[in-house]
Structures are given as structure tokens and as C-alpha cells.
Amino acid sequence: MTAFGPRMLRSLGPWATALMVTLAQPGVADSPDSPPPADAVITADAPATAAVLQPFTVNYRVNVSKIPTPIRATLTLTEAGDDQYRMGLAVKSMLMDNSEQSLFQWRNCQPHTLTYQHDFEGFRRERHHRMTFNWDTLRVSGHSSADDEGQDDFDYSITEDTLDELTMLLKARCIMQEGVSQYQLTSAYGKRLRTHFIHVVGEETMNTPLGRLRTIKFEKRRDQDSKRRTIFWLAPDLDYLLVRARHVEGTGLFGELKMTGYDGPYNALKK
To answer: Cα–Cα distance between 36 and 243 in angstroms, integer?
Structure first.
């Protein structure tokens, strides 16, 4: 794994790890007293949008080119008071430590980031970002430190729909209501803005800790013609819960995230 570990695992953070964004939905319909049979596909009659979010914890395992690794990831969402939420992602092993934190407000089906930070250490590489979003002036400022880019303070303009890379997929449940097959998102990360091209490519039914779920398969590229891409599977009947994510670096080389545990509003669906 050391031959390609640094590039692959750094590619998993922040974007591929950001794919682990999972929303809990209030107002979920009452679940059956007993779990569904193994061949049943779970659906939930929940509204597509919500005024508030509910806390959750989701666990994932990281595989590299279908080879299991000891790397585990945990994504959490907690209430922070004053109409604010805090999302945190921790990806840890003996070889690396990747951590992201986003403090944001949820307004009109969009996360409005207040602060974002990303720290990566491993394989003799480091990356640290501290960012503050000012929505009154539509600017983001902060400090970046990376072994391949040095240290720098920054301050630049953003638009009303600019996201951070951890809460980016919170937009999926709103955008998909419009019946689109492709869309673009803009995120602020470190010293620059990033554009993400996202395509809906099909549906699959998967086994998960919550039973069998119908999922929509998305593909994301930073450039329309890029060979590097990220594929992710979201469960629309559970408010676009992330089931799996795969980041492809090249032929036969990819990192994959698989959900292994869940604690949140859908606990009653567990077998």
C-alpha cells in the first residue's frame, strides 16, 4: 500500500471522504416492528426536505482496489445551538490521520458554512487549512499550510451557493427534486474555488447495515474529460444516505468507502 498510499489516501480527503456526508431526516414514517426480509428493499415515506437536521453517526471502512485496509472512518453530525450544526469526519490508521470539521447553518436546503478546517498527516505529508466564511461580504479568508504548496494567508470572493467540501453533498437531496441528470457545484477549499461536475448514471440496490436499499449512482469529476473520478451511491428513500463511495485514480487503482455501521433516526430499520 505504501507505493500509492499517499496519493490515494490524500485523494480520499477531502473530496472522497466528503462523500460520506449523510443526512438524517426528521418526520420519518413509523418503521415496522420487525425488520424486513433479506430480499426486501427498504423505502421510507419521508419528506424530501426538512427545516432541521437530526444528529447521526456513520461508520465506514476503506478498501484500496478491493483490498481491505485497517483504515476506518467516522462521520458525525451534531447540533451546535443557535441554528447551527457541526459536521465532523475522522479517518484514522497507524499510517495517516485525516480530520475535517465544518460549522454551518442550514438555510433553504443549503448549508451555509461558518468555519471549515482540514488536517491531514501521514506518509511524510501534511496539509492544514483554516477557513472562515463571511456571508455579509461574500468572502472567505483563512490560512493554509501544505508540504507541496507552503504556507499562505488568503482572502477571496465567493457566491451565495458556494459550499465547503465536507458538507457539499447536503445539496443532493434538494437538487434531485428537480429531476436533473447532471449539475455543477462550487466549493471553496484552501486558497481556491473548485468546480465539480456531477452526473446521475443509474440505480443499484445494495446490502447495507440498514438492510437492502435502492440507491442512485452518481459520478463526479473535477473536469469533464478527467480520468480521475469519484462514484458514489446515495439512498433516496432515506434522504440520500451515503451507502458507498469510490475514488478512481486510474485503471485498476481506486479507493472505496463502505458503510459498516449507523446510529441515527433510521435505527429501527436495522436487522
So the answer is: 18
